[in-house]
Amino acid sequence: MAFDATFFALVGLVLFLALVAYLKVPGMLAKSLDARAVNIRNELDEAKRLREEAQQLLAEYQRKRKEAEAEAAQLIASAEREAAAITEDARQKTEEFVARRNALSEQKIRQAEADAIGAVRAAAVDLAVAAAEKVIAAKADASTQQALFNDSIGSVKSRLN
């Protein structure tokens, strides 16, 4: 019988399959694939766990950010209230200061007016006395002066007694 190349290929294939079966290659392949599947499943579980942790961290950081924003808003509101109070206090103190200054200035003006009126009156009295003295001196002769002198002495005596 003549064996051709196809027969030898068939025999080689059968021997190869027998050798593969004898060495338990399909079991090793299945075991390797199972191990790889378990490894992939473990990696997927780990990734899922890491994802959940990341989501928890994200939620926590978002909560902390909201708290920080609320605290910042409270600080800003507090600072605005404080600034408004300080501004109002400064405005009130400024108004009081201006009112006191105005009152003091008005008082000084009234005092200066009173002093000026007094000085004018004193000058007018001095001027009137000097003018009267000149007029009396010019119109009075010796007998009139003696009569005035005697009359003044009599007036003083009656007041003293």
From TrEMBL:
It is found in: Cell inner membrane; Cell membrane. Residues 30-96 form a coiled coil. The chain crosses the membrane at residues 6-23. Its main location: membrane. InterPro entries: ATP_synth_b/b'su_bac/chlpt, ATP_synthase_B_chain. It is a single-pass membrane protein. It comes from the Bacteria. The keyword Coiled coil applies. Keywords: ATP synthesis, Cell membrane, CF(0), Coiled coil, Hydrogen ion transport, Ion transport, Membrane, Transmembrane, Transmembrane helix, Transport. CDD domains: ATP-synt_Fo_b (cd06503). Component of the F(0) channel, it forms part of the peripheral stalk, linking F(1) to F(0). The b'-subunit is a diverged and duplicated form of b found in plants and photosynthetic bacteria. F(1)F(0) ATP synthase produces ATP from ADP in the presence of a proton or sodium gradient. F-type ATPases consist of two structural domains, F(1) containing the extramembraneous catalytic core and F(0) containing the membrane proton channel, linked together by a central stalk and a peripheral stalk. During catalysis, ATP synthesis in the catalytic domain of F(1) is coupled via a rotary mechanism of the central stalk subunits to proton translocation. NCBIfam families: PRK09173.1. Belongs to the ATPase B chain family. F-type ATPases have 2 components, F(1) - the catalytic core - and F(0) - the membrane proton channel. F(1) has five subunits: alpha(3), beta(3), gamma(1), delta(1), epsilon(1). F(0) has three main subunits: a(1), b(2) and c(10-14). The alpha and beta chains form an alternating ring which encloses part of the gamma chain. F(1) is attached to F(0) by a central stalk formed by the gamma and epsilon chains, while a peripheral stalk is formed by the delta and b chains. This is ATP synthase subunit b. It comes from Rhizobium oryzicola. The lineage of its organism: Bacteria, Pseudomonadati, Pseudomonadota, Alphaproteobacteria, Hyphomicrobiales. The gene is atpF.
